[in-house]
Amino acid sequence: MFEQNLLSRLNVEMISSLGGFKVLQHKRDMSTIQTAATKEYFCSQMNIQRKQVLLELNGNSYCVQAGAMQWFSGQVTMNSNIKGVGDFLGKALGATVTKESAAKPIYSGTGQVMLEATYRHILLTNVDDWGGQIILDDGLFLACDASLQQKVVARSNLSSAALGKEGLFNLSLIGKGVVALESIVPMDELIEINLKDDCMKIDGNMAIAWSGSLNFTVEKSAKSLIGSALSGEGFVNVYRGTGKIWMAPVMGGSYSAGETVATETAAKGRTGSKAGKISVGDAIDAVSGILDLFT
Amino acid sequence: MFQLNNFYDNQNMKCIAEMGRYQIFEHEKDLSVSPNVAEMAYFASKMNVRRRQLLVNLAGGGCTVQAGAMQWMLGNVQMTSGVKGIGNFLGKAVGAAVTKESAVKPEYTGEGLLMLEPTYKHLIPVDVEKWGSIVLDDGLFLACDSTLTHKVVARSNISSAVLGREGLFNLSLTGKGIAILESPVPQAELIEFKLQNDVIKIDGNMAIAWSGSLEFTVEKSANSLLGSAVSGEGFVNVYRGTGTILMAPTM
Lengths: 295, 251
Fold this sequence. Notes:
The structure holds 2 protein chains of 2 kinds. Chain A is 17% helix and 40% strand. Chain A is of the alpha+beta class. Chain A has helices at residues 37-45, 85-98, 158-164, 225-230, 280-294, and strands at 12-18, 21-26, 50-64, 69-79, 106-115, 121-126, 133-136, 141-145, 149-154, 169-174, 178-183, 191-202, 207-211, 215-220, 235-247. In chain A, a hairpin with a 2-residue loop joins strand 1 (12-18) and strand 2. Chain B is α+β, with helices and mostly antiparallel strands. Chain B has one domain (13-247): Mitochondrial biogenesis AIM24 (Double-stranded beta-helix, 4-Layer Sandwich). Chain B is built from 5 helices and 17 strands. In chain B, strands 2, 3, 4, 5, 6, 7, 8, 10 and 13 form a 9-stranded antiparallel β-sheet that branches. In chain B, strands 9, 11, 12, 14, 15, 16 and 17 form a 7-stranded antiparallel β-sheet that branches. Chain B is globular and about 65 Å long. The interface between A and B is large, with 58 and 54 residues.
């Protein structure tokens, strides 16, 4: 048995929860010093608060972005989720192309797992609401129910990757379960679009997540190539069919949180489209994970 | 079929103005600020520095937009460049160069919604029918109904262009429809003059839009050249006749 006084503290509040996921927010930085007070004050005024995800384990298991764990208590075990060298290489490849960590450790048992604090915003969503498959923008993944199946999906055509600035591969999650996303914009700045046999065209990579059922292509904005060039729009990202899209229309603005330094993310910069690529640390983690399996 | 969530009911996104099928949305506060820019973003939000976006419902007909201003389009929406051939393009390019507008203003048609890129400038809807014909200051145009005719108008005399610092050519919109202006000053800082066979003289290029019916010249402020020089005003922009003028005195 263990106890923790986190939720009874005045400065911490639970801002959302879904399934076994709880998002805790530290209202104010209580341990500031004189020289940092101005910055901390404006941070508290501008909705910049540290958030943490608390995972409740009740015999189930969660898959977490590597390096994102802060503490876990109770009868919780962690395994690296790597089944062999071949499996690791496959995962490393998938990770490189989606800018995620290669090995996403799995925590299972009975107890609690707390993830690292982040200034980014935590979005909880049920994959079932996305028609059973959600495709994520690079570096968005933080944690999910281990029951969800992870798959790296390639673009339906090359043009969509090269011209859509979305990368050639994306991580997709399939099945029933909850996923926690670490986003630079909060839910309030996201627009949710539900398409039913219709079409959405976006100028830029503002979609952060979309249903696997949607057909994503990159197309010329006008019918003729010269028309597209002259209109100043060039190519647009087109989502066709039935499904859901989350779009961040104000992303990349001059004061956007997208410029956060890597250490501000829960996954220590291993997520986030700017952080990119798997680090040596990831590889060492994973290799030691493999060695654990053999010993 | 499409459905938008967290849009019309978004607490942080308010529809601040509406005219016909045009809606102007304002993002009340930047909610995704990083610690490094928190102070700047705080004061920006206190000083009315906000991002604004224009939403157009295309069900009411085509919409002509400044090039590159589209952010997203939802539904069965097509874009045409509005260029009919090389000769047509060259003509438009010349017109664009002199009015500092984009050469090609794409036209969006279909059933659905069109959202334009966010801007920190202020969006001002104008009913062109009330103006008859509206002459716009350089670079003010953002979007308008495709029913409106675009014309590049030259100054009635060279003096008005050279001395009035307003440029030799201006974009004018004529017809029945709505235009949206992207202005550096908000509507609250604009003075609207209505002239009825009268005259207004302005020292500087503070008029951002005026009726095509007005006669625009640049004149000496006093009757004599010497009087103009000693008064410290020199030349003034003179609008004569009947019509409306939008002036930004604090620009």
